[in-house]
Please model this.
Amino acid sequence: MAAPAYGQEDDEAGEPSAGEHAVFVTARRVAEAQERVPISLDRLDAADLERRGIARLADLAGVVPNLTMPTIGAFGAQQPIMRGVFSPIGASTIGLYIDDVPIQIRSLEVAGNPDLRRFDLDRVEVLRGPQGTLFGADSMGGTIRTLTRQPQLEGLDGQASGEFALVGRGGFSREMQSALGGAILPGQIGMRVSAYYRRDAGVIDRFDLSGGLLTKNIDHDAALGLRFALKAALGERLALTPSLFFQRAKRGDLPFYESSLGLFRQTASLRQPGHDRFLLPGLTARLDLGGAVLTGVTAWLDRRNRQIVDYSGYFGEIILGGMVPGIRTPGGSYSRTTVDQTVFTQELRIASADPRASVRWLVGGFYSRSRIAMEQHVVEPGIADLAQSQLGLSIEEIFGLPLLPGGLSYHSRQQIRERTLAVFGQANWTFAPRWEVTGGLRLSYNPLRFRLMSEGPFAGGSNAVGPRGQSDTPLIPYAGLSWRPGGDSLVYLSAGKGFRGGGTNGAVPANSCAADLSALGRAAAPDSYGSDSLWSYEVGVKAGLPARRLHLSLAAFRIDWRRIQQSVTLPNCGFSYVDNLGAARNQGVELALRSEPLRRLVLDFSFGFVDARFRRDVGLPASAIVAAGDRIPYVPRWSGTLAAEYGFTLPGRLDGFVRTEWRQAGRYRRAPSTRSVAYDPRVYSGEGSELLFLRMGLGRDGWQLSAFADNLLNSRALLYRNAELVPVTGSPLREMAQRPRTVGLSASFAL
Model:
């Protein structure tokens, strides 16, 4: 087990108290040993992240059981799924935090959550199950916390590292990061500043329609990050920590290839770049009240996402119905989308200060005000010539409307404004030796307002929707009971409710979508959709046998989810809407086992299983949206890892290690039902995946040199297959495979 590590402990109530080699977490807002926390969770510190090759948020899915992060939709957005709680639209089912600040975004199928990188982190904590009674922003499926290294008031520390790697079939990747922190005025003011840059090589090559190579490795991406934090102790009781985090990510092109061309080849008419800028200033204040600690967290999130997606085949597929295979708009057509997200958050909480007290409590308030503005322009002036040459008709004769100025066939702008006002609290009572009962409650008010403007021939004319509004006032309880039979063992059970607010739909043209809507038994799409909620039940065991160097964690869960928010795709007109589609039951287990059978040899095994299925039919019998027994999409039934690490010492006081890790995940479904009107047999089934990693290193006196091979067996499992822009006409699909074998070197140095 790793030595004690602290990232946020001095900002939490109480002082840790456990064995010398305990691993601490702050999952319950207080520093405590991981084996004493009655929650199914995973903790990865900075060394774990580096040795397991976790460079970005999406990589966590490979090492955390029952966590997946698939690519959803033609825009390449990724969405976290925990324990099968998945919905492709609406408010996020998973809470995502940087320190104490929630940063998740509503699922828009265009821009997903920020692509956070392994950058000056102390650790990552993944908490399964609803977390609304301890954290400001509600999360019905679980929470992912990225905890940064904090300024210290004594001493000086610094790190610098670099990485250089060769990607099979691609180019070279490289990474540089550095951090420096320490006391400016010992005991009073400390500072930490860090910087990060990474460029990942691309592997996709772009060809013209005649087979000629145009550009190699077009899907490269790069990220630049900067972080600054200052800590000031104002007397013995008050500490202020202002901070600033900036990240800018760019992609050269989408990492998709075309199914008809084979691996890593595409013939898009245009480049498909993307740009994501993320700025997060914040202030944390901590006041010691003697018997309690008051903490305030204020933050402002400002994010801008821009991207281009090739639409050159859209007219031929939607309007011509694929009658002319491979036809494209002369000069190319593209969708230009922008998503601006701004969020103000304020959390205030007070917690008991004595971690050894028989009653420990926390009470908090949370306020957030968010605005999301999404705008889309579909630019395709060449479709006028294409329509005339193929149909002998003008755009106005086909749609009854001309193109908008600038050759736009579609233009829309939607705005979502949300507020959350919540009070929450939780108390733990040790009512008998080794027995603890936990109770929590959350009450919130969540109003939402929505506006949409759309225009152009593909929109069926000029439309204005809104302002439409909706609000909810949910009451969310949590209860738990735990027993420590002795040593490092823990047995617990818990039940908690998760909640997600509803929303409103945009305009769906009744004329052009009439056939699709009729197949679903509707004359028009609904104006709004309601909230959904779930109950999560968990029982778990954590056991440690220090004499045998063995630790086990096992949790079993059941989730009953009702009125699920799901996107309904209208396959022939290209639009969609959101509705509440029935109920589901998710059942499964998580197992983690660590042993040290020989001195300096550590074996790790983790396994997750989840059976997530809809419980009843939704829709007409002839064209169900979902049917009873259908599996929730994008959820593999099982996933797991097996790792072995051996440490050794060489002459000259060199410490070394060799680590190998195997990861595997099962098959899944990309759509809920074979009976749906949107069912496409080409994309329905998602295959399983497996990866093998190898890393070895040598170090001494703060420096370390490592060599690594990711995807050592060069697995080519298909991770993504999409027909959103190519309906069932036999046209090539957009696909993405696992990244080829990557070998490289890394070096690090610490003061």
